[in-house]
Amino acid sequence: MKKLLGMFGVGGATTLLAREINVNPNAGEGENYITIEGDQIGLLNWILKILGLMDPSVKLTIDNRYITRVDGGKFYEISPTSGIYNFSSGYSMNKSYLILAILFIWTIILPIIFFILYKRSASLVLYVDCFKTGVYESISVKSGFTGKKLEKSDFENIFQALKNASSKNSQYYK
Description:
Layout (H helix, E strand, L loop, with lengths): L1 H6 L6 E10 L8 E9 L2 H8 L6 E7 L2 E6 L3 E6 L3 E9 L3 H8 L5 H11 L3 E8 L5 E7 L9 H18 L5
């Protein structure tokens, strides 16, 4: 259902400001391959969090048995890793900040600000589809100015962890 709604611009990928990312591509029994924690981005989410009316936190974990997503510390969505039949991961940086830094090179402060924004603009994305359960997990994680700084190595580790979790646990990769 999330996948269907996402195609129409409703729901879709959850975008988080990264708070913590732990990746263990070679996780053993009882260990997590991936743990991602962050807050959903958006002005309304931020205001409601400040007022104590909402907890925009999201935690996603993938281990040998389950994919677990916890929204606001209250809503749990769990799916077995044995049902993973498709996954993908990606990494990008917002190059428009770099272009703006070059365009405003004749000023003193703006190129520095735009270059700093470029260095903090990294974003990771991961998608996991599970057969029969209908779970379609789509998370986009951004560094932002205040979040954890993301590196290309984070993407490489996440991709390897997804690959290992699928090949070791999914019935579709055996």
